[in-house]
Known about the structure:
peptidoglycan synthesis, 2 domains, undecaprenyldiphospho-muramoylpentapeptide beta-N-acetylglucosaminyltransferase activity, six-stranded parallel β-sheet, seven-stranded parallel β-sheet, 361 residues, GlycoTrans_28_N, UDP-N-acetyl-D-glucosamine:N-acetylmuramoyl-L-alanyl-D-glutamyl-meso-2,6-diaminopimelyl-D-alanyl-D-alanine-diphosphoundecaprenol 4-beta-N-acetylglucosaminlytransferase activity
Amino acid sequence: MKIIVSAGGTGGHLYPALALVDYIKSQDPTAEFLFVGTTDRLEAHVVPELGYAYKGLHVKGLSGNPLQKVKNVLLFIKSLSHSKKILKEFKPDLVVGFGGYPSASIVLAASKKKIPTMIHEQNSIIGLTNKILINKVDEIICCYKQALEQFPAEKTKLLGNPRASKVWENDLKDVHDIYNIPRDKKVVVIVMGSLGSATINKTMVSALKKMENEDYHILYATGKAHYEEMKKEASFNDNIHIVPYIDDMPSVLKSSDIIVSRAGATTLAEMTSLGSASILIPSPYVVMNHQEHNAMELVNNEAALMILEKDLNEDELVEKISLLMNNDEMRENMKKNAKAMGKPHACEDIYGEIKKLLERG
């Protein structure tokens, strides 16, 4: 089995792709993979370091002024020729696109050569690349009902994000042990992605001050770039734990009482797989505001609360945290509802669809 996997631009596209490839490798050690991405983004560095073969396409997103957009379209057209060359050399049995502009090039080229194709949509709103590919591919995998309703029913399956499976591979620890928190204390974890958020850090100083006499503990990840500034700005009681970064998110998600976080696709896939109660603050700085749509999927299923960043202040945040921490029944129901949305067998199920697709030829 030879598979080309394309995921470009962001970790939200790349890490689900890597999770699926790792799983397939564990099931079929003879499987061969070639990743296709950009020449200069995250995947161009991460994938080779993990030991997978990699080809970069010189492509750019359709952003910027009109002249820049025209230049980027010309780059894309040129990348189709490069993609055809890659297909001729590697001779894949299947091409899978996980989003990002390199996916459009390699998947379109494969479709024209009648090579079986599949795309994966991580968000509830369909990305531009996958919109381009909808009518060209043989099969579509999505993670949310909203996306399922936008894709052609006859070739789309709601199987989830491979990262939902990946979190179960870890030897999960307990947040109390990792951060020396007494075992009899409840824990709130607040994390705004690996980089953190300067905007939210400002709100957090006063919010944490209001919660430093509570009986529960709070673990707040500032983001590495903001850690020293945050430590200088305020000192807190012993129930407040300030860290730059959380290395073992699956363990923290599994063993904390509630999570306050952004609403990226990978984060929500992990949270629902593990059954985390959450307060979501979607990033407003993403394409098509997809994080808010992702968050609404959980809110509508009573699996999360949401605060829009424009409405965020210390009182609103403290009020919602207190609501959940002081209502065990509400919090446990939220965990149960989140877990019901989870797709912990996503990798196994997607791999099953890949084998069916290849059998059909």
